[in-house]
Backbone:
């Protein structure tokens, strides 16, 4: 492990956790090293607020929309997706040169704002992007006066 002095301006040599990288050397056949188990637990998403609605976009390339499930329970929006590995005669390990695509189930959950109309949520899946529109409930007051008893 290499350290730097506080007076050094070069942080390039500061690697306090580099010994964790040895996991792959010690356990080369662990599940974490297999390509099918890399990066399957999550996916990228963006959520933006507009005047009357919110939009949530999630990158889910290479999936069929029948393999994507969206649920809403007590203000928690959950997106679950599943990608199955295609099995064919070329999956023989002696024929595979590179295998980086992820397979399996993965999901993301986010708390939606309280002013979302839960009966007015729409979703589209086009070109690998899941687009969810969450309409705001305009009947909820944003501010109110509370009387003191």
Residues:
């Amino acid at each position: 492990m290499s350290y730097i002095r506080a007076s050094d301006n070069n942080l390039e040599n500061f690697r306090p956790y580099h010994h964790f990288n040895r996991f792959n050397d010690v356990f080369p056949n662990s599940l974490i090293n297999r390509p099918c188990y890399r990066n399957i637990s999550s996916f990228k998403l963006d959520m933006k607020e507009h005047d009357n609605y919110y939009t949530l976009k999630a990158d889910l390339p290479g999936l069929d929309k029948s393999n994507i499930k969206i649920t809403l329970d007590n203000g928690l929006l959950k997106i679950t997706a599943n990608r199955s590995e295609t099995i064919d005669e070329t999956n023989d390990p002696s024929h595979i040169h590179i295998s980086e695509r992820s397979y399996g189930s993965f999901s993301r959950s986010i708390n939606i704002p309280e002013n979302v109309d839960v009966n007015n949520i729409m979703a589209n899946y086009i070109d690998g992007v899941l687009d969810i529109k969450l309409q705001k409930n305009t009947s909820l007051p944003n501010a109110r006066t509370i009387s003191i008893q």
